[in-house]
Amino acid sequence: MQDNGVSKRWNVVVTGGEAPPRRVVKSLIDNAELVIAADSGLDTCLSWEVEPDLVVGDMDSVANTTVLERFTHDRVIKAPREKDETDTELAVRYSVERYSEQVAIVGGGGGRVDHLLGIFSLFHRAQAPFSWITDRDEITRVDGLFRCDLPIGTTVSFFPVGRTSARMRSKGLKWKLDGLEWSSGDAGLSNVVTQRPFTVEMMSGRLVCIHSHRTIAQGGGDEQ
Question: Which one, 75, 84, 152, 179, has the greatest CB density within 10 A?
Fold first, then answer.
């Protein structure tokens, strides 16, 4: 996990869709206060041999609902199929309201574009997740002083999120962010890391930083 001012206490919501290999998120999950499976995120958890603390959702995408029998009644939060929030939103809200405001989302890669945009939209909210890790990419909230240690040459992109325009300065990037002011609809695509770690200091607003986690030296390959 990169240093973006996140406290040492956090929860992880594992959602459906394409997820990273277990090794990529092992430390994140092992050190979480709580692991919540959102609907078919349960299948992902079980494939990793991780038993979530809670299961939230309408369960319409769980491969075999009989696995729910291993959980006590208080660990399954069943939602109706017709609802105003996605299963991921429900799990994040449940985590924020009852346990911790610091939430990371794992999974949700591939699939329908509207589902991807739905998860991304959570970064625009006041209580945004601090990270979203898919099968390919890591999306990290950038507010305050952000330090990120990635190999030199790594491609990183930035998008403004939230309702306030983003003003920032940076060190260790090929194209500096100093003096820029971004609003919704702006973007900084395909910047390049030139220094380890690189830093982004927000003067106002919030960004997300996106990079491929396959570029991080973690042993290579996609093994579990």
Answer: 75
Find the angle CA(46)-CA(223)-CA(132) to the nearest 5 degrees: 65
Strand order in the sheet with 103-106: 76-78, 54-57, 34-38, 11-14, 103-106, 131-133, 137-142, 206-212, 155-161, 188-192
Q: Do 61 and 16 form a contact (C-beta atoms < 8 A)?
A: yes
Note the Cα 220 to chain centre separation in Å: 21
Q: What is the pLDDT of residues 42-81, one digit of tens each?
A: 999 999 999 999 999 888 888 888 888 889 888 988 887 8
| pLDDT score recorded for residue 68 | 87
Q: What's the rounded Cα separation, in Å, for the pair 214 and 200?
A: 22
Model pLDDT, residue 12: 96
Give strand pairing partners of 159: 208
Alpha-carbon distances, residue 96 vs 12, 92, 154, 185 (angstroms): 11, 6, 32, 28
Q: How far apart are CA 135 and CA 156, in angstroms?
A: 16
Check: CB of residue 195 under 8 Å from CB of residue 179. Answer: no
Q: Which of 25, 33, 30 is nearest to 8 (CA)?
A: 33
pTM of the model: 0.89
| Residues 65, 146: Cα–Cα separation, whole Å | 41
In which residue are the tokens 């809670």 written? 54
**Residue 177 tokens, joined:** 């962010």
